[in-house]
Amino acid sequence: MNEDLIPMLLTGFGETLYMVVLSTVAAVVLGLPLGVLVVITSTGHVLESPRLNRVLGTVINITRSFPFIIMIVLLLPLSRFLVGTTLGATAAAVPLSIAAAPFLARIIENSLKEVDRGKVEAALAMGATPLQIVRKVLIPEALSSLVLGLTLAVITITGFTATAGAIGAGGLGSLAIRYGYMRYREDVMFATVLILVIFVQGVQWSGDRLARRINRNQHRLG
Amino acid sequence: MITIDSLNKQYHTPRGSYHALRDVTLQVKKGDIFGIIGLSGAGKSTLIRCLNRLEEPDSGSIVIDGREITGLATHELRDARKKIGMIFQHFNLLDSRTVQGNVAFPLELAGFPRKEITRRVAEILDLVGLSDKAGSYPAQLSGGQKQRVGIARALANHPEVLLSDEATSALDPQTTRSILELLADINRKLGLTIVLITHEMSVIRQICGKVAVLDRGEIVESGPVDAVFSAPSSATMRLFLEHSTLLQGSGAGI
Ligand SMILES: Nc1ncnc2c1ncn2[C@@H]1O[C@H](COP(=O)(O)OP(=O)(O)O)[C@@H](O)[C@H]1O
Ligand SMILES: [Mg+2]
């Protein structure tokens, strides 16, 4: 049986990768505006709005408090509506991205909050619009920290895909459950875990490297 | 010309209200270097930040070059701000941008074409003596160099007024002197009106033509620097003078 292990793992890894990439992109599309809005609507910021800020904060907290497995079940109708099915990697990307978006929003919020208020003030004094402040001040100044946050999100989403795999999403998680757990194939179990460990390490290493590179200019002493 | 009329500003905190500016009335002539001096907490920053409405005054009016700043709608205020340069105690440069990129920033905001930006940035860096640092990042510069970048950035879009909020307070005396010389030089060359706040007598003495003394939110005296220094009428100014002669006497040499 060992000869079909490799293609099986490759397919599984491909599905996992596909889910991670798709969900990360969708989570960024949802989470970035959310995180940015939470920051700029906070007290004393460029688009101060206590009410909107409170609403957004509550939405984030509520979505974050759902256990992921419950989230999947709750979002089954949405997956069916958007993708046409509740099975497979694309369908799984729906709950994955919706679960990851508020998490990512908080990470982004924390990064952007670190940007010195003086820089924002200087830009305001030069006549910048709130959008220009987001695009030209907050994001570039927080970039290395944002990259680290995104790295963390990718790794968290990778973990989520394993859970999603347990209930029909495909990917390495699904292999581990179907073969490793149900059919006592320890080699499959071991191989999937090994691939995931290597993948997570690789993501972390790349993220760290990229963040360091961005940081180097800003903190290089001449 | 800047006309400030009966400006009031209160801060409301959970612990109560604080009257940071009380009926402040001032006139700054075009081309002047106008100093505002006061102790820490006197309301200097509040006052200068009202001039470009980084702080919203509660009442009173501010007119700069015939334009009533206090009456502008948000988008008009943004346009007005593009013609009011500001420099800060902690420079507030963007660490992710080079010197060149920092000075280009206000020009990008104003929508200038790339070529024009490059030309203007080179010109202004030459004016502040930083042409050789165009490609450096702020982290690679000394405090004095950073403030030169701040000044270049503030001047890039041909402002009519330059606001300086304790711009030399984070610098050593020698660097302070060179930055003040640069400001005086710019004032002469460009005929730029400069409003400068400080808690240091020496700064006023070195470059200001007129001075106003702010004490607990009120202007307690104002006039030409020579007159105010030789015959101070307020207790605050006398205290300031006493303090600075004391330091001079003991050889600290302000
Ligand atoms: N945002 C704020 N909220 C509440 N109080 C403030 C705020 N900013 C300044 N103040 C108070 O107003 C007074 C004047 O402050 P400021 O204008 O910064 O003084 P200065 O620049 O002369 O040191 C101080 O007592 C300060 O504590
Ligand atoms: Mg101050």
From TrEMBL, chain A:
Instruction: Tell me which domain of life the UniProt entry assigns to the organism this sequence originates from.
Output: Bacteria
SUPFAM superfamilies named in the record:
MetI-like
- GO aspect biological process, one term: D-methionine transmembrane transport
The portions of this protein that span the membrane are 17-40, 52-75, 81-104, 145-168, 188-207
Report how it sits in the membrane: Multi-pass membrane protein
Chief subcellular location equals: membrane
**Which InterPro entries does the entry link to?**
AA_ABC_Transporter_Permease, MetI-like, MetI-like_sf
Sorted keywords for this record are:
Cell membrane, Membrane, Transmembrane, Transmembrane helix, Transport
Question: Where does this one sit in the cell?
Answer: Cell membrane
- GO CC, alphabetical: plasma membrane
Q: Which Pfam families match?
A: BPD_transp_1
Q: Which family does it belong to?
A: Belongs to the binding-protein-dependent transport system permease family. CysTW subfamily.
Residue ranges of every copy of the ABC transmembrane type-1 domain listed in the record: 13-207
Q: What is this protein called?
A: ABC transporter permease
